[in-house]
Write a structure and sequence with these properties.
This protein has two domains: 195 residues, no CATH class; 70 residues, no CATH class. 66% of the residues lie in helices and 8% in strands. The protein is built from 13 helices and four strands. A four-stranded antiparallel β-sheet has the order 1-4-2-3, covered by helices on one side. A hairpin with a 4-residue loop joins β2 and β3.
Length: 329
């Protein structure tokens, strides 16, 4: 028996009915995702190995001018790759939502091929469930692989990157929350595909809606989550404030506290005296405060946001099944 026949028979035992049909029908999309992972991994491994084989110069007399392949040093290129790679991961929900809404759902409704499945002992609910299941499993595997590549690329810069754990892209690339956003994109894609039933419009709408979720939440997450506050007497120098909260913390707001308990901005003394450490007596400043997020808040926000997005994904999937039931009743 040939190897290809053995693979088909083995795969057939693992996937049956509409699940196998879904994989076969959309295998080009799955292969594209695999190719994306392989390409990203190849670049990350190449730059990581190059950064270790060709270390950056540190004993230069004057400016260092070492280059790698005619560009900046390999370590600099690796750092730039990790930065841009993290930002690129933010657009995964856009791509996933568009693919699920268009090629996976709306295209079959648009050209009528769904009727073939529904007339072969496959109910509409099972038809949709198979597509959502395959899309969710493939999405989870894809995101886990891409997040792993990011962690591999950023490992030499752990200290520096940890100080930027609140940045767009870096925060999402830590893993759990990005998976939740992408699963939400799967559910949104299914719902939009059933509503629009036209391939290109469904792709556009689902992609925009899926991308708007991480963008909108990322704009408010640190303002909504409760901050930790530290207060002390005196005026508190800039160095003293950072030493108190830690360099890996995210400073939200800082300023002075008056005898009445009123808060003043950090530049209140500078405006009057042009010195942060000398404050006019009439301001009645008795101390200073700092509102900040310690590094420990990273995982609290990750898990809270992940739970919310998974709940929204479940709600969108439920709405998609309800819509399909009403349309086929």
């Amino acid at each position: 028996m040939s190897a290809s026949a053995t693979l088909r028979r083995s795969s057939g035992r693992r996937l049956r009915g509409p699940y196998w049909t879904t994989v076969r029908l959309h295998r080009s999309i799955l292969w594209t995702g695999l190719a994306l992972v392989i390409a990203a991994a190849a670049v990350a491994v190449f730059l990581r190995v190059s950064a270790e084989v060709f270390p950056e110069q540190t004993d230069c007399v004057g400016p260092c001018t070492d280059t790698f392949l005619g560009f900046a040093s390999a370590r600099v290129l690796l750092g730039n790759f990790a930065d841009y790679y993290a930002i690129a991961l933010l657009f995964l929900p856009f791509l996933i939502g568009a693919v699920v809404a268009g090629p996976v759902i709306a295209r079959e409704l648009d050209n009528g091929t769904y009727r073939l499945a529904w007339t072969q002992s496959v109910s509409p609910a099972r038809w949709l469930a198979s597509k959502l299941t395959v899309a969710a499993v493939a999405t989870t595997a894809l995101v886990l692989a891409l997040v792993g590549i990011f962690q591999f690329a950023r490992a030499p810069f752990t200290g520096a990157v940890n100080q930027r754990w609140v940045d767009r892209g870096v925060f999402e690339a830590y893993g759990p929350v990005l998976i939740a956003y992408c699963l939400l994109a799967v559910a949104i894609g299914a719902l939009v595909g059933l509503l629009v039933r036209r391939t290109l419009p469904a792709m556009a709408i689902a992609g925009v809606v899926s991308l708007s979720m991480p963008m909108a939440v990322g704009s408010v997450r640190w303002d909504v989550f409760p901050v930790r506050t530290i207060t002390a007497t005196g005026t508190g120098t800039y160095q003293e404030r950072w030493t108190t909260i830690g360099l890996d913390s995210f400073l939200m707001q800082s300023g002075y506290v008056t005898a009445s308990g009123k808060r003043l901005p950090y530049n209140a003394c500078w405006v009057r005296t042009h010195d942060f450490d000398k404050c006019p007596a009439d301001l009645n400043i008795t101390g200073w405060y700092v509102d900040f997020h310690p590094h420990s808040h990273l995982w609290w926000v990750q898990f809270a946001e992940t739970g919310i997005m998974l709940a929204l994904a479940a709600a969108a999937a439920w709405a998609a099944f309800r819509l399909l039931r009403r349309a086929t009743a």
